[in-house]
């Protein structure tokens, strides 16, 4: 059920993001989705790629601090209120979203969003009970 | 004006006779009451009886800051605790500051030395002294306070911080003497300016500045911006606190060391060899009147030179140049002593944090800003910004708690910190003092 996300620590200075994409390009890794969270001093780049291990090794070799986190890729109905239904459900179940970001591609009728929850397993059950589709990692990487 | 005319203008021969008598008594007491000194003397194969003249002083072993730490907290005290009336301490890592004690007579000696210093710096009993040195474990605040009272001046115990309130007090109370660290003095002037108060129009005549190194250039700036005569005071808690040496306002050229209480030596920091007058090296002090905490050949790590030239003020005591540097890696941040190793200990105590760090010191406006750069290792990295920020805050808090100094903590990428020949560059000091 889980998808693997890699995260990279970046100092807030010119050209750092470009270096990450350079390393990934060199390693022939394809970026599927990404989000950047930043403060005035540093940023955390979160990435879903087609080959997590390859990307991680390449970035580490290039001297970056790299982390790996389990996230969920959830299909969100592509219509008004679609995202709200999901968030409302999780809210009533007492599950918090640590962060979320949108996937680049869509699958048919639905959009795909990446979620990081405080209680991942509980979120899976809660969502599946209500019929929301969670994409398998392998599927996400090749979307 | 001279506070203690008999001693401060004593002819050299008479002074040396007093010095030898007092040195002898100090060595005998240290040997008898402090196990550390006895062991050190024995290891060097020397007894108090071997010291036959002042020239024999270099035969005694040195005392270092590490020795004081090893004897934390009271191991170097030469009197029983019931005779100690005051304890001060320098900043240190967890459990390892250097602790010093004073008997009632030591407190009185110190007050007398500070009264001498204040008067050498232009103060008289008719003055109002605005004392912005920090009160507390730091010797600056209470040292200046007791000296001001001893002198008979009126002292405002305003301590550090609350700068706007200080400006109001300076405007309303009309103090005539300012005692502060030189960087805080400039900060006061800046804040006064922001508040529409013209500092040079205040009633200040003299400013007595110390606890951190400052240059002639900074003196010019202070005198111009604050509209007062700026003089330098020197001291360190291990020796007694402020009041070990003081510049006279008449000459403003070197600080008179109160040699009837402290014997100075200049040594080569590498070989330990004593250097003659005029040569630059590390300053070493032996206290010769202190009861609770005598120090024998204490290495200050401050770099300076001594000059025996007669002074226009009439004092006969040798002068030391303004301190030009350190023979170790100690930094002075807003008057607080900081060793890189202390920051390292703070980091080591924290889970997941690796001690890959670098200290960058800048002067923004008039204040020293310490930035601690910490490399983000895989173990401490998180994909959540708030966790990383929490870590920055925790490091900041721990540094403040253990060292008493505010630092900006900045997480940086691994290998961001320059390594020269495999050895990390721990300190970058960008201050132009």
Characterization of the model:
The complex is a heterodimer of chains A (143) and B (433). Chain A is an alpha+beta fold. Chain A folds into two domains: 3-69, 2-Layer Sandwich (VC0802-like), CATH 3.30.2130.10; 70-141, VC0802-like, CATH 3.30.2130. Chain A has five helices and seven strands. In chain A, strands 1, 2, 3, 4, 5, 6 and 7 form a seven-stranded antiparallel β-sheet that branches. Chain A is globular, with a radius of gyration of 16 Å. Chain A starts with a strand and ends with a helix. The model of chain A has no long low-confidence stretch (mean pLDDT 89). Chain B has eleven helices and 24 strands. In chain B, 46% of the residues are buried. In chain B, the strands form six sheets. In chain B, strands 4-3-5-6-7-8-9-15-14 form a nine-stranded mixed β-sheet. A five-stranded antiparallel β-sheet of chain B has the order 11-10-12-13-16. In chain B, strands 21-20-19-24 form a four-stranded mixed β-sheet. With 433 residues, chain B is of the alpha/beta class. Chain B has helices at residues 5-8, 12-33, 35-43, 65-70, 104-120, 139-151, 163-173, 182-194, 216-226, 340-349, 385-403; strands at 84-89, 99-103, 128-131, 154-156, 177-180, 206-210, 229-236, 241-247, 255-257, 262-267, 274-275, 281-287, 298-304, 306-307, 319-320, 325-326, 331-333, 336-338, 357-364, 367-375, 407-412, 419-420, 423-424, 427-429. The model of chain B has no long low-confidence stretch (mean pLDDT 92). Chain B has two domains: 70-328, Rossmann fold (3-Layer(aba) Sandwich); 333-429, GMP Synthetase, Chain A, domain 3. Classes of the chains: A alpha+beta (143), B alpha/beta (433). The A-B interface holds A 5, 7, 9-11, 16, 37-39, 41-42, 44, 46, 63-67, 69, 98-99, 116 and B 376-378, 381-385, 388-389, 392, 410-416.
């Amino acid at each position: 059920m889980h998808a693997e996300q890699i995260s990279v620590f970046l100092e807030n200075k010119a050209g750092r993001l470009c270096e990450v994409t350079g390393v990934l390009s060199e390693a022939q890794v394809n970026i599927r989705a990404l989000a950047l969270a930043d403060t005035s001093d540093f940023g955390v780049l979160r990435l879903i790629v087609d080959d997590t291990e390859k990307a991680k090794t390449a970035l580490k070799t290039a001297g970056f601090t790299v982390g790996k986190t389990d996230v969920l890729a959830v299909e969100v109905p592509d219509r008004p209120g679609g995202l709200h239904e999901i968030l409302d459900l999780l809210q009533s179940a007492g599950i918090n979203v640590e962060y979320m970001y949108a996937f680049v591609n869509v699958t048919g009728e639905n959009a795909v969003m990446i979620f990081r929850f405080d209680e991942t397993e509980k979120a899976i059950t809660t969502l599946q009970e209500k019929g929301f589709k969670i994409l398998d990692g392998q599927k996400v990487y090749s979307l | 004006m001279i506070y203690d005319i008999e001693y401060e203008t004593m002819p050299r021969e008479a002074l040396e006779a007093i010095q030898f008598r007092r040195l002898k008594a100090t060595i005998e007491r240290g040997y008898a009451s402090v196990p550390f000194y006895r062991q050190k003397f024995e290891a060097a194969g020397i007894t108090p009886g071997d010291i036959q003249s002042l020239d024999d002083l270099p035969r005694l072993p040195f005392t270092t800051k590490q020795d004081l730490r090893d004897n934390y907290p009271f191991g170097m005290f030469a009197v029983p605790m019931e005779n100690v009336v005051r304890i001060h301490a320098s900043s240190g890592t967890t459990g390892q500051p250097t602790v010093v004690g004073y008997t009632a007579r030591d407190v009185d000696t110190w007050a007398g030395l500070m009264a001498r210093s204040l008067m050498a710096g232009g103060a008289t009993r008719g003055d109002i002294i605005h004392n912005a040195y920090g009160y507390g474990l730091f010797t600056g605040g209470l040292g200046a306070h007791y000296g001001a009272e001893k002198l008979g001046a009126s002292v405002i115990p305003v301590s550090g911080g609350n700068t706007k309130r200080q400006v109001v007090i300076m405007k309303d109370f009309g103090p005539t003497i300012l005692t502060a660290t030189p960087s805080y003095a400039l900060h006061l002037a800046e804040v006064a300016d922001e508040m529409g108060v013209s500092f040079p129009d205040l009633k200040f005549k003299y400013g007595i500045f110390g606890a951190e190194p400052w240059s002639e250039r900074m003196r010019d700036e202070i005198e111009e911006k604050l509209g007062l005569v700026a003089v330098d005071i020197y001291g360190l808690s291990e020796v007694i606190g402020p009041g070990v040496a003081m510049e006279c306002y008449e000459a403003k050229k070197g600080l008179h060391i109160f040699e009837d209480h402290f014997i100075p030596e200049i040594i080569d920091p590498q070989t330990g060899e004593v250097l003659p007058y005029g040569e630059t090296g590390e300053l070493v002090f032996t206290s010769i009147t202190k009861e609770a905490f005598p120090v024998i050949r204490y290495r200050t790590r401050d770099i300076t030179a001594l000059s025996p030239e007669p002074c226009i003020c009439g004092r006969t005591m040798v002068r030391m140049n303004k301190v030009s540097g350190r023979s170790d890696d100690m930094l002075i941040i807003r008057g607080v002593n900081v060793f890189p190793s202390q920051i390292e200990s703070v980091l080591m105590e924290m889970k997941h944090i690796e001690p890959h760090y670098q200290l960058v010191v800048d002067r923004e406006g008039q204040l020293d800003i310490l930035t601690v750069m910490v490399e983000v290792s895989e173990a401490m990295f998180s994909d959540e910004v708030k966790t990383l920020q929490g870590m920055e805050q925790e490091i900041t808090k721990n540094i403040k708690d253990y060292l008493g100094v505010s630092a900006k903590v900045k997480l940086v990428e691994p290998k961001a910190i320059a390594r020269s020949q495999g050895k990390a560059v721990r300190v970058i000091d960008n201050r132009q003092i």
